[in-house]
Design brief:
The complex is a heterodimer of chains A (114) and B (111).
Chain A (H helix, E strand, L loop, with lengths): L4 E3 L2 E4 L5 E6 L6 E7 L6 E7 L2 E4 L8 E4 L6 E5 L8 E8 L8 E2 L3 E5 L1
Parallel strand pairs in A: 2-11
Antiparallel strand pairs in A: 1-3, 3-8, 4-5, 4-9, 5-6, 7-8, 9-10, 9-11
Chain B lengths: L3 E3 L4 E4 L4 E7 L6 E7 L6 E7 L2 E5 L2 E6 L4 E6 L8 E8 L7 E2 L3 E6 L1
Parallel strand pairs in B: 2-11
Antiparallel strand pairs in B: 1-3, 3-8, 4-5, 4-9, 6-7, 7-8, 9-10, 9-11
Classes of the chains: A mainly beta (114), B mainly beta (111).
Amino acid sequence: GAGVSQTPSNKVTEKGKYVELRCDPISGHTALYWYRQSLGQGPEFLIYFQGTGAADDSGLPNDRFFAVRPEGSVSTLKIQRTERGDSAVYLCASSLVEGAESKFFGPGTRLTVL
Amino acid sequence: QKEVEQDPGPLSVPEGAIVSLNCTYSNSAFQYFMWYRQYSRKGPELLMYTYSSGNKEDGRFTAQVDKSSKYISLFIRDSQPSDSATYLCAMRTSNTGKLIFGQGTTLQVKP
């Protein structure tokens, strides 16, 4: 596709459940970023990958959050034992290389934990 | 205190006005400064980026960085209703791709 795609666009789950959010970056982009955006706030950094490896995971709030990018393309953000406070829009972005300023964001996955 | 501070607004201006948006920051190691525009229920899109101090102009948009004051600005000339969106400043140091965003300022341009 031409841009970054994220699935699902919306996810409603119950407290305590496990969820997976998927990001398909722009083809050929080696760097991939996950951010979380709460209502009325700017995006908050979670983790970024350069290739298959996590270059910086300092933004993951706790060990319930985990992300993978096994083949250096698609990435999955996994949240265990979801809590109501996890409700937010989860944004994915990709760039050609790590230092590139042109980061392209996807439309986000809106997660609601009931 | 947040690393990047941005007045959330909302800011309402008439069409054709000059809009000034700004952010302050505390980390003197920030070297790269960006402005993103975000429409409702969309992902942010990059408008401008600047390395270190100085000005950069692109059409109706001008970005300014004053590292001595830890202050960045975005000016929009001849504002249009289509400019109505949330504007996010973002910045990073030289040794990471991780961006730190401001809260975002909501702008409404009235016809």
